[in-house]
Amino acid sequence: MIKISDTYRSTQEEIMDDFALQGKELELLLNDLKRVNKLLGGNAITINGLKKILTHKQSGQITIVDVGCGDGELLRQCAKFTRKKGWDCLFIGIDANEHILKTAEERSTSFPEISYKIMNVLSPKIKEISADVFLCTLFLHHFKNEQISQVLNNFMKQAKIGVVVNDLERSKIAFTLFKLFSTIFIKTRIAKHDGLVSVARGFKKNELFKISEKIAFNNQTIQWKWAFRFQWILFKK
Fold first, then answer.
1. How far apart are CA 181 and CA 197, in angstroms?
2. Higher per-residue confidence, 21 vs 23
3. For the residues 17-28, what does the mean pLDDT come to?
4. What is the CA radius of gyration of the chain?
5. How many CB atoms lie within 10 A of CB 79?
6. Which end of the chain lies in a sparser environment, N or C, as judged by fewer CB atoms within 10 Å?
7. What is the pLDDT of residues 89-131, one digit of tens each?
8. Position 18 pLDDT exceeds 80
9. What region holds the Methyltransferase domain (predicted)?
10. How far apart are the two ends of the chain, measured CA to CA in Å?
11. What is the pLDDT of residues 121-136, one digit of tens each?
């Protein structure tokens, strides 16, 4: 049974963290995730953060890296946004699941500005990646707090502009509402299970502030957003 606590983050693992997930099961799961993000507006929070962090951007090409990119849906939405803005952007999606990246490439054929790399963010190779902006959408809750501060410090060293984080609030209300939501809108067992685990692994605002104190760069903002999300922006300057 999946449990949620007001005092601590769950350590229960998500099924989707099995990098061997592939085939029809993966395809149905990705369709569920796309439906959830569309109905609850999750990607819009990241795009809004990207808009904020690029407010004072310099002229020239911008490189944006999405870590834990999945099938690249967020990158495609970001590419549509930056095209409308007339910005010259390159996008790199990073994920540790080679099967999901194959799907990402198939779904991104009309976006030549997007490319993908298979990589684990905890491996030393991640330090070879540099960008103007790093995006972490529904990604950090997969890690322990001490790993999160390590990952973000690395990203901030490698970023020219900063990092945009979009992740879940750990809330019993959100947990209950997701149960109801999933009975209507979610078809796969994995998405129903992992959605609840994700909420249980999410954050209280004070927990994010404690993690932020361990980040070397202090120019940060943390804001609550609907539906039960936090938008955390870390500025390099």
1. 15
2. 23
3. 82
4. 17
5. 22
6. N
7. 999 999 999 999 999 999 999 999 999 999 999 999 999 999 9
8. no
9. 64-157
10. 44
11. 999 999 999 999 999 9
What is the pLDDT confidence band of residue 153, given thresholds at 50, 70 and 90? very high
Count Cβ atoms below 10 Å from residue 82 Cβ, excluding itself: 21
- Largest Cα–Cα separation, the chain: 52
The answer to whether 92 and 199 have CB atoms below 8 angstroms apart is: no
Structural domains of the chain sorted by starting position, each given as residue range(s) with its CATH number in brackets: 39-169+204-235 (3.40.50.150)
Name residue 122's amino acid.
L
Pairwise CA distance, residues 202 & 159, whole Å:
25
58: how many CB neighbours lie within 10 A of its CB? 9
Average pLDDT over residues 138-145: 97
Interval 215-221 mean pLDDT: 91
> 221 φ, ψ to 5°?
-135, 140
What is the three-class DSSP state of 230? strand
Q: 168-205: buried (b, 16+ CB within 10 Å) or exposed (e) per residue?
A: bbbbeebbeebeebbeeebebebbbbbbbbbbbbbbbe
- Residue 1 CB neighbour total at 10 angstroms: 4
Token couple for 91 = 């996008």
Question: Can you tell me which residue has the tokens 């361990």?
Answer: 214
φ and ψ of 73, to 5 deg: -60, -45
